[in-house]
Amino acid sequence: MGLRESDLEARKTRIGASAVACLLPCGHPFTTPAEQYARIVHGIEQQARPIMHMGNLMEGSIHWLYKQVMRERGLWVRRNSVSIVRDRWTATPDGYCECGGVLEYKNVSWHAADQWSSDHAPAHYETQCQLQMLASGRDHAHLCALLAGTAFQEHRVDADPAYQQRIVDAIDDFFERHVEPRLPPPTADSTLLLTFSKPEDTLYA
Predict the structure, then answer these.
(1) β-bridge pairing 77-79 and 95-97
(2) DSSP 179
């Protein structure tokens, strides 16, 4: 589902729930603080990885599968295309459930499926769910994954106010130490060499 133009504009200058784990100790496998800085401050978008593009394409199919699961429980679910915008961050849950939960869908490739188990989901996805719950005021989330196209897994993530506060603190720290004074965070990524004395000095390698 496509986002509203106003939401797309808001996301350009804020950290998104899907990327926020890169600011936390758990880290994020697909983005870094330096990449988020370059995106927010200089509008430099990194090329979408194939797995992320496929995840977006598969979201509707995963929603359909989960709708069948919840129908058997006598509950309805609905998709969402509206971002919740705050001063420094945004959150866009994939949907909501009649039970009061946030929905987040993931399409997991075969080589990442072993990071999931019946009682464990990757920390960066649970971090995303925590910020979505904080934004929406919900007390739990359903993290639903299609694993290697062959298995469907559901995890309930309960709201953790203390961890949610740590996420917000990490966002504030990132903006106050890097974004607002225009001081890039250190990066070990040799493919993204940036100088930030002024925007036109941005360099690539």
Answers:
(1) antiparallel
(2) I
Contact criterion met (CB below 8 Å) for 82 and 96: no
Q: Which residues of 87-122 are buried (b: 16+ CB within 10 A; e: fewer)?
A: ebbbbbbbbbbeeebbbbbbbbeeebbeebeeeebb
Q: What is the DSSP letter of 148?
A: T
List pLDDT tens digits, range 115-174: 888 788 999 999 999 999 999 999 999 999 998 888 889 999 999 999 999 999 999 999
Give the tokens for residue 119: 């009682």
Planar angle of CA 61, 62, 67, nearest 5 degrees:
100
Residue 84 is which amino acid? I
Alpha helices in the chain (DSSP H): 5-12, 33-42, 50-72, 123-136, 161-174
Tokens at residue 89, please? 């961050």
Residue whose pair of structure tokens reads 């106010």 in the numeric block: 161
pTM of the complete model: 0.86
Residue from 51, 38, 195, 163 nearest 111 by CA? 51
Measure the CA angle with vertex 180, ends 137 and 36; round to 5°: 65
